[in-house]
Amino acid sequence: MPLFSQTITDFWREPFLNGDVLYSDEVFTVAINSDLSEDRRVMVLETSDGRVMAVLTPALADKLGLYQRQDLSEPTFRRKLNEAGVTLHGADYLFYFSEADKNVLLQENLEGVLCQLTEQDDAVFSEFQSSASEQDLDDAYVELDHWAVFGSFEQNRLVSAASMYPWENAQIADLGVLTLTPFRGKGHARKVVRSISKYACDQGYEPQYRCQLDNQASTSLAKAAGLTLFGKWEVISPDSTD
């Protein structure tokens, strides 16, 4: 059995491998792809097996002076980006359920443990948001109007919530989770992540969990919830000067 579903591997292979390959060796591949959007005009993906794939638009490849059959390495490629004033946004870890762990999740009985939230829960959700810091709200990006929202309660108070939305027109659902500070470490976040992920799987979507590399609490939560590291993903920064 493959570690991850075909949906996940195909989604990430498509932009990197459907273009024209400029350079490829056992660990590093560079391709140009004219179909990349402006805010994705350069991307780098390092999978958990240590392979690195980079893709960029033809215009950006020209600016960097890249051409076929030239000898390249990841450090050389990053140096060329830097010299051209191209800044990459801080990398995100990408976590998914392995096929084996997804099968375990689908057989779990999570009924009645948590509540799926709707717009009728606006007052409860507003109180929840007002109890969180602006930084936590921004980092988590949990919203009541997303495709799916689940919450965990303690003494009738919403203390943890996760929300999801379809990602990049794929059968992948990107999730965010937020637990109010006094209620962390009690298992609330793990339960909401697993519940909303089971819901997504039941709807035919692959749950996707992203977090910044330095967010150790979020990384620990992903692992506690049964997710497996797929890789590290970098995309061009909105502040790039290129």
From TrEMBL:
It is an enzyme of class 2 (transferase). GO terms for molecular function: acyltransferase activity. InterPro entries: GNAT_acetyltra_YdfB-like, GNAT_dom. It holds the Pfam family GNAT_acetyltran. Its EC number is 2.3.1.-. Residues 104-242 form the N-acetyltransferase domain. Keywords: Acyltransferase, Transferase. This is GNAT family N-acetyltransferase. It comes from Alkaliphilus flagellatus.
